[in-house]
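queue> pop job 88
queue> type: inverse folding (structure -> sequence)
queue> payload:
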């Protein structure tokens, strides 16, 4: 695994590898049995299986879903993309293909050609090619969805709208349309990897990705806020998000040219939030009333430099230390834009009670799920405590993001999920 990828995983895991010391007792409230879900990152699970010498075939994919169902999992979240590439036979995203050499010539943010010969990048290429070879023979997503349907497990497609660039996993649409990335205030540089969804081309492309998945029979769409480029570009300006539609809308509403004049940055965050909500509305309209839309929240700082993450209110997310989007989650639920909220805490202490008190109690309807990334064995203590708190009535469900510990051979988390 490359240094950049390790750094990304370290940021997203952060303090959550620390065992949970204590949970403030949550008051039990009458509710239905909480939902127990697993977020399967298809590319990671394929890599993990290959590293253990397991053959990737239809039976293996079916066994993943079967294993979940046999251990108390009540729904499946499925991440079928690997940054900008698809691990299913998509007509919208580029399907991950075998490459003889690393395509890192344009990867200035990661060192470009200088790093191409380093062992870490060679390992990445080997892993990417392993996935590419495995997914040629059959459609992984179709197999998983069909098996989930046989077991009456709702199957949600999990999308990553802000994770669109990593060397070798580029989103070709954006590489061909770089002006859809975030623009710097000088208008000279772009924030590669983070689209601006005020741009019609970016919004329609995401809708096309979701539309294709709906046509293939998924039961809904969930969104995530993680990004390989969450820390921001290694080069360029500190401030991004000054795309022409944003500049024009800000001037129309407040009479200020944000390229030339001083302005209130909180108003820009507000505007970014409205545009993100607008994108959710577009998804809601596409989904209709029978398919679910599960919207994302991040709680806490993602890293020490505060370049990606939020705070304990969960009412914003920041990318690159400067591009801030207000997350209007009370509005999403109140207006029926989103059905449920998926909350990713970035600290290990008292997560259930923080989500319960900071988010759940402010909502009159809608479900709130806690999502955890399981990466280290030490996290099983955290997992056990949080599951107990959720089952006591703290929240409406728990989503376990399996990372590479999904294989049935790693059953510790399964035993915890299957407990009543």
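queue> result:
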């Amino acid at each position: 695994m490359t240094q950049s990828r390790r750094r990304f995983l370290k940021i997203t895991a952060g303090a959550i590898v620390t065992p949970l010391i204590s949970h403030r007792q949550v008051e039990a409230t009458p509710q239905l049995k909480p939902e127990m879900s697993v977020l399967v990152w298809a590319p990671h699970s394929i890599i993990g299986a290959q590293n253990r010498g397991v053959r990737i075939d239809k039976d293996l994919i079916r066994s993943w879903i079967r294993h979940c169902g046999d251990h108390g999992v009540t729904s499946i979240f499925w991440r079928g993309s690997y940054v900008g590439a698809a691990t299913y036979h998509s007509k919208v995203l580029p399907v991950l293909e075998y490459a003889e050499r690393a395509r890192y010539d344009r990867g200035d943010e990661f060192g470009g050609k200088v790093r191409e010969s380093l062992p870490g990048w060679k390992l990445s290429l080997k892993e990417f090619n392993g996935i590419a070879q495995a997914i040629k023979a059959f459609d992984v997503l179709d197999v998983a969805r069909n098996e989930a349907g046989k077991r009456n497990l709702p199957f949600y497609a999990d999308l990553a709208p802000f994770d669109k660039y990593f060397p070798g996993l580029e989103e070709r649409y954006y590489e061909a349309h770089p002006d859809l990335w975030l623009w710097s205030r000088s208008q000279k540089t772009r924030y590669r990897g983070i689209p601006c969804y005020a741009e019609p081309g970016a919004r329609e492309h995401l809708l096309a990705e979701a539309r294709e998945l709906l046509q293939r029979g998924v039961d809904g769409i969930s969104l995530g806020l993680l990004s390989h480029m969450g820390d921001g570009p290694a080069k360029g300006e500190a401030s991004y998000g000054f795309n022409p539609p944003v500049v024009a809308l800000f001037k129309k509403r407040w009479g200020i040219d944000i390229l030339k004049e001083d302005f209130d940055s909180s108003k820009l965050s507000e505007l970014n939030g409205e545009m993100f909500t607008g994108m959710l509305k577009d998804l809601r309209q596409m989904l209709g009333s029978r398919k679910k839309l599960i919207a994302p929240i991040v709680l806490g700082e993602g890293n020490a430099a505060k370049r990606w993450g939020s705070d304990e209110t969960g009412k914003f997310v920041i990318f690159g230390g400067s591009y801030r989007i207000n997350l209007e989650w009370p509005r999403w639920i109140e207006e029926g834009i989103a059905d449920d909220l998926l909350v990713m805490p970035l600290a290990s202490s008292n997560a259930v009670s923080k989500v319960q008190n900071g988010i759940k109690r402010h909502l009159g309807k809608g479900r709130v799920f806690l999502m955890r990334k399981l990466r280290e064995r030490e996290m099983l203590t955290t997992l056990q405590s949080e599951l107990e708190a959720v089952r006591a009535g703290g929240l409406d469900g728990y989503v376990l993001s399996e990372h590479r510990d999904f294989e049935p051979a790693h059953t510790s988390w399964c035993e915890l999920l299957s407990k009543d």
